Amino acid sequence: MAKKEALRELQSRLAERLQAARTEARTANWLAVEAAGHGFLLPLSDAGEIFPFGAYIGVPHTAPWFIGVANLRGGLHGVVDLAGFLGFRNTAAGVAPSDSVRDQARLVAFNPMLEVNCALLVERLSGLRSKEQLQPDTDELHGKPAFVGGRYRDAQGRKWQELSLGALAADEAFLKIVG
To answer: What is the model's pTM?
Structure first.
């Protein structure tokens, strides 16, 4: 009898957690990340798995923002320094193994449905964000690339820039890693 009650209780808890996960998935639209002091919003539909920044192998004769390749769950992925690609820092100096932010740095893989074996190096994850938590920012960027979406401001006044990984994966400058 006790086993049946324990099973029912377990099923009930699982059902509650599934419902909570469904509700959160509807409200959370973006993964918030930071790179070179800037806030970015990556659509959850574009983002894949998140990995700690670990071992990678540099690739000669590539763009400075192309850090190299890493084995992520048995698949070879190109690693791109997001801040370096966007021109916010000199990547060669910014990704040294002794870097103090390396402990918080993460690799955000592209969703496998985008068919690009790539991961973005970000300095820190800042959680999930929804449209309800952000207000559109009226500062409009002129001449922005196709992968740059809307700008938003949170309750603390911090600015966040939306980046479409799907559009980034198709961007000619992003795909041209040869330096």
So the answer is: 0.79
